[in-house]
Amino acid sequence: MSDFDLTMPPEAVRPTPQLSRQGFEIRALQSTVLTGLTWLAAVLAAVPLFSVIYLLLAQGGSRLFGSDFVEVITGLPPAGFEMGGGIGPAIVGTLVMVGIASVISIPIGILAAIYLGVLDPHSKMANTSRFLAKVLTGFPSIMAGVFVYAVLVIHWGYSAWAGGIALAVLMLRTVVLAAEEAISQVPQRMKDAAYGMGCTRTQVIWKVVLPTGLPGILTGVLLAVAGAAGESAPLLFTALFSNYFISELSEPTASLSILIFNFSGMPFPNQIELAWTASLVLVLLVLMFNILARLIGQPKV
Amino acid sequence: MNAVAESVFVAQPYQAVGDIIIDCKVDKIFYGDFLAVRDSTVPIEKKKITGFIGPSGCGKSTVLRSLNRMNDLIQVFRFVGSVIYHGQDVYAAKVDPVLVRRYIGMVFQQPNPFSMSIYDNVAFGLRLNRFKGDMDERVQKALERAALWKEVKDKLKNSGLSLSGGQQQRLCIARAIATEPDVLLMDEPCSALDPIATRQVEELMLELKANYTLALVTHNMQQATRVADTTAFFSVDISHGGRTGYLVEMGPTKQIFEDPREQLTKDYISGQFS
Ligand SMILES: Nc1ncnc2c1ncn2[C@@H]1O[C@H](COP(=O)(O)OP(=O)(O)OP(=O)(O)O)[C@@H](O)[C@H]1O
Ligand SMILES: [Mg+2]
């Protein structure tokens, strides 16, 4: 005999569950509308970047990627009614000053981050300097220029050094905060393991903490470099500008951002076109550093 | 007389039969003002496995980590007592804790491989000690003894973090034994392992015993009976408003489990088994 009670039809005991989607429920409608809105917001957020790149390509692309490529990249800026010319000195100047800034700010920034993240994270000193680095994040970049102007430029004149130092002041905060973040995310368990193997504190930092935090540190460094490459205000007071290739670090130096500023205000179509081209080069440079930062920062599995 | 002099329970000292490699005498261990462990004498016998058992929070890990000064990394930690290792007090002022840890290795409860390749994980300690011999051979031997070689031999270049939890733990054991430490401290090394891997690690411990000394914290009573030669049972004293751990009884594993001297031990063990 069966155990089932056959006197009762099965559907009377329990209705068949209704699992298929109900198209016109309020809940489903809300969900669709909200999803649509977030999608729209995401598109809107991307609009400025794409329109800037589109505009730059339209205005400066033909000059940069055309037959004049070599002249644009390596040539000197044209004078008044001269045709042709290029932005070579500005490209080199920007790279040199960003280089100086990197050489100064990256080692200091990473050392500071090691102190903040590993050596003494909760000391008064660490809390103070972490706070100051955060304050520096909201610091107007022109103030870095004014500061270096008052301290260095007044005595020794405009120079690539002064420009590089002003950029270093701005890069430092990004490097410190990003590197500290990366370093403090190295799990305590890993550090314990290293200590347990008989590592000194220095060995723990060199062999475990820095290698583990490296992707994060590099991301921070590259974002700082990208930011510095695009700065103009601090260079205005420190490196000024020059029409020639840099020959020593103690003379006024050209930079892309200042070239854009100068040439865009001129009444000559050739210069204005070059300003567009320089903008495109600058954006591509910054974009390249950002993309590199993304690639390196990707977690490896 | 006064409350302080009121007799507190202190375990009868365990008379070790063999050589004692680490003679640990805890007077008091503090975390800040908190008295975590008191009056516990735990001799670790050479080439034997000493098991630490007891309820959670009774200070097993604290005592174990005191043996190689791992607790020094906790700023508020303070140890009163002595840990005599080869005739030297590990806590003496002139002793370098870093060197202590090279001789007294450690396997942690949570697997903690470094974010580097499997090979580099195992070679880490060898490189640290400037090992000059055949690195590949030593790495392979350590992985074999940790019962991991078969699973990883074709992917030694992969990250140690790409392994499963149990594999990671065996990697950590391989890393710890690659340098052939004198003593190996293991804090619940099998809590992240499945029964098969647990068995493998237990066999490994029994094999290691031939050359090394092991101290093992475990919550698994069967594990203690399977591998430990000597067992130390700790408990927590909450009578004075604190939560202070102390040694209740230490002896040969068989005696502790079959014929415990203290009622507390009897209760704990029967509670676990029933
Ligand atoms: N870093 C620390 N700071 C402060 N107190 C601590 C610290 N580590 C442990 N303690 C305290 O010391 C006591 C003993 O802890 P311990 O970790 O040694 O216990 P345990 O016996 O290993 O427990 P479990 O079996 O749960 O691992 C507990 O009361 C715990 O709260
Ligand atoms: Mg523990």
Please state the structural category of chain A.
Answer: mainly alpha
* Strand residues, percent of chain A: under 5%
CATH topology of the domain at 88-297 in chain A: MetI-like fold
Q: Structural class given helices, strands, pairing of chain B?
A: alpha/beta
List each distinct ligand once: adenosine-5'-triphosphate, magnesium ion
SSE series of chain A: HHHHHHHHHHHH
- In the CATH classification, which architecture of the domain at 88-297 in chain A applies? Orthogonal Bundle
Straight-line N-to-C gap of chain A: 59 Å
What does this structure look like?
The complex is a heterodimer of chains A (about 300) and B (about 270). Chain A is an all-alpha fold. Chain A has a domain at about 90-295: Orthogonal Bundle (MetI-like fold). Chain A has 12 helices and no strands. In chain A, helix 6 crosses helix 7 (about 160-185) and helix 11 packs antiparallel against helix 12 (about 270-295). Chain A is flat and about 105 Å long. The mean pLDDT of chain A is about 90. Chain B is an alpha/beta fold. Chain B contains 10 helices and 10 strands. In chain B, strands 5-4-1-2-10-9-3-8-7-6 form a 10-stranded mixed β-sheet, sandwiched between helices. The radius of gyration of chain B is 19 Å and the shape is globular. The interface of A and B includes residues 193 and 208 of A. Bound molecules: adenosine-5'-triphosphate and magnesium ion (MG). Adenosine-5'-triphosphate binds near residues 62 and 74 of chain B. Adenosine-5'-triphosphate binds next to strand 2 and helix 1 of chain B.
Short description:
With 301 residues, chain A is mainly alpha-helical. Chain A has twelve helices and no strands.
